[in-house]
Specification:
- By secondary structure, the protein is mainly alpha-helical.
- The chain has one domain.
- The chain contains six helices and four strands; from the N terminus they run ααβαβααββα.
- Strands 1-2 form a two-stranded antiparallel ribbon. Strands 3-4 form a two-stranded antiparallel sheet.
- α1 runs antiparallel to α2 and α4 packs antiparallel against α6.
- The longest helix has 34 residues.
- It is flat and about 60 Å long.
- The two termini are 27 Å apart.
């Protein structure tokens, strides 16, 4: 298990301050877990064959289940932690924005195209589509509209750029100290 690089703490604190503590926790868990090697296509194919063969065997004696050893994780240390975090944050935020867009699109389709025509006539005409009103654990309401998701999506390149600039400043800051 790797030790969290102290240079990541301002990012962790910033995420918690803007109610993105879920992402801060994912970062901490990911860095501590390390890089787990993924199974190759050949490994997966061999495992599939072994399972099929075991299913075909009609043995009367009870077989002990084969247990695969978990893949060994490689620790993420130093500047690699920073690079990993930049990549992870960028990917997760993109996923969240994409899921928000897909959710609004699906709700829009359900509400305005899937209903029978006689019911559609009683609904107000869609302007900006569906508006989501989310209630947080602390009883606050958050409103999410299609234009919010579009702005978030448009901001993704800047987020990536800012993350890369931040990472570079951490690397160069270490060399000048």
């Amino acid at each position: 298990m790797a030790t969290i690089d102290r240079r990541l703490l301002p990012l962790i604190e910033a995420l918690a301050a803007v109610d993105a503590d879920w992402l801060a926790f994912e970062i901490l868990e990911g860095v501590q877990r390390g890089r787990v090697a993924e199974e190759t296509h050949d490994d997966l194919f061999l495992t599939q064959q072994k399972v099929r063969e075991a299913g075909r065997k009609k043995s009367t004696e009870r077989q002990r289940p084969h247990r695969a050893s978990p893949a060994t994780a490689q620790p993420i240390t130093g500047d690699d932690q920073i690079d990993w975090v930049v990549s992870y944050v960028n990917e997760r935020i993109q996923e969240v924005v994409s899921m928000g867009d897909a959710a609004l699109e699906e709700l829009n389709a359900i509400l305005f195209t899937s209903v029978p025509p006689q019911v559609r006539l009683t609904l107000p005409p869609p302007t900006d589509g569906v508006t989501l009103v989310l209630q947080t654990d602390d009883e606050q309401q958050r409103i999410v509209r299609r234009d919010d998701v579009a702005r978030a999506s448009a901001g993704l390149p800047r987020l990536r750029s800012e993350l890369l600039t931040w990472a570079e400043s951490l690397r160069t800051g270490d060399k000048t100290e």
